[in-house]
Amino acid sequence: MEVDDLSTNRIGVAIPILPCKSIDEQLDFYQALGFELTYRQAKPNLYACVRHPIVELHFFVLKQLEPANSYSMCYVSVPDVDAVYQEFCTNLKKAYQKVPSKGFPRITKLNNLSEDRRFNLIDPAGNRLLIGQKHASPRPIQNNQSIAVQPSRFANAFETAYRLAYAKDDFAAAARVLDLVFSKAEEGSATLRYQAYVLRADVAISMDELNLAMAFIREAEKLSLSEHELEEVVEATGRLNDLNTTLGQS
Fold first, then answer.
1. 119, 131 contact by CB (below 8 A)
2. Is residue 221 scored above 60 in pLDDT?
3. Which residue, 163, 173, 175, is CA-closest to 203?
4. How far apart are CA 120 and CA 139, in angstroms?
5. 148 has a pLDDT exceeding 70
6. Backbone phi, then psi, for 131, in 5-degree steps?
7. Where are the domains of the chain?
8. What is the rounded end-to-end Cα distance, in angstroms, of the chain?
9. SS3 assignment, position 43
10. Binning pLDDT at 50, 70 and 90, where does residue 158 land?
11. Residues near 184 by Cβ (< 8 Å), separated by ≥ 6?
């Protein structure tokens, strides 16, 4: 639903006003995503507005801004996060010949957190859009019942590391959390260990530690999971396949 539609229903609408170092760079990125430029001002200060069916964004120039130190963010709730993610990835690939996953700008993978299914979009200025779809009802991360019913130290560490990696993009912290508990891996079910190894491999790739990533992928692939267990880890298996593809292209 667009902003204009909401206003006619007299519902309050919040429009983020985000900083950037370059209006041109910012607009190029958002137009590549599929946003429409709706306003641009040159004087007395640089200012611009873009709109997409999911959100309207405004930008101003802050010349001393360092993208790596940006704390600007907003949450965008959407009815179909998978469709938005697919649209953005397709458009980014057309514009950049790849889907940027590191640096600025970048887009993260889709992930299931306890409260929603989401991805993060980080623009050239370091502003972070958390784009998510709320679950119909609260559920454990990845809907894995083995995590919910086994609140072991290993299970708790996995949940923490998953959120650090995929909600905060803090891969170094996620690595530290998991590495502290891998000696306790036997406390977890086979499905939980599988997911933890895949997560740690993904974190390693994000930190350019390719040999370490391969080691954790081998640990995951050594586990013999039943057909029922494989149904519990569909998302992790898909990610494992993606990681193998990434390593094959490195």
1. yes
2. yes
3. 175
4. 20
5. no
6. -110, 115
7. 3-130, 142-249
8. 41
9. coil
10. very high
11. 152, 153, 154
The H or E element that residue 58 is part of is: strand 55-61
CATH code reported for the domain at 142-249? 1.25.40
For β-strands 55-61 and 17-20, DSSP reports them as: parallel
Contact 34, 143 (CB under 8 A): no
Q: Write the pLDDT tens digit of every residue in 123-142.
A: 999 999 999 999 886 555 44
The pLDDT of residue 249 is 67
SS3 content of the chain, % helix, strand, coil (to 5): 50, 20, 30
Q: Which amino acid is at 218?
A: R
Rg of the chain in Å (alpha carbons): 20
Identify the CATH number of the domain defined by range 3-130: 3.10.180.10
- pTM: predicted TM-score of the whole model, two decimal places: 0.79
Mean pLDDT, range 72-89, rounded to an integer: 97
Residues 64-70 have a mean pLDDT of 94
Helix (H) or strand (E) holding 185: none
Q: How many CA atoms lie within 13 A of 134 on its CB side?
A: 6
